[in-house]
Amino acid sequence: MMRAAALLMMLLAMPAAAQQRVTEAPGVVLRGLDKINGLLYDIEMYTGQTAEFGDLRIELTSCRYPAGNPSGDAFAALQISDANRGTELFSGWMIASTPALSAMDHSRYDIWVMRCATS
């Protein structure tokens, strides 16, 4: 039993042999929802840029997508803060195909990744 557990731990610690290659994109297209008025907004921004959406301040650190497939599953590194209070609401990776996996928790706004902007 101990050997099986040790083997499992070693296998989990090794990098995946078939890791998907990714391409860095210059920007991202986000979708924002204002839950109060029910309106959707598309937000296009570029790496290092800061955008404002309602009371939120959004900064893009990176956007990546599968190599050779720009319409594929995008994942973006974002920092989102409350512009009025200066408090950080989210810092990490959001994934287009699974927005609930790493979501920002806010009473009024939802933000999710649509795709990387390639131009």
From TrEMBL:
A Pfam family (short name) is DUF2155
**Region forming the signal peptide:** 1-18
Q: Which InterPro entries match?
A: DUF2155 (IPR019225)
Q: Which UniProt keywords apply?
A: Signal
What this protein is called in its record is DUF2155 domain-containing protein
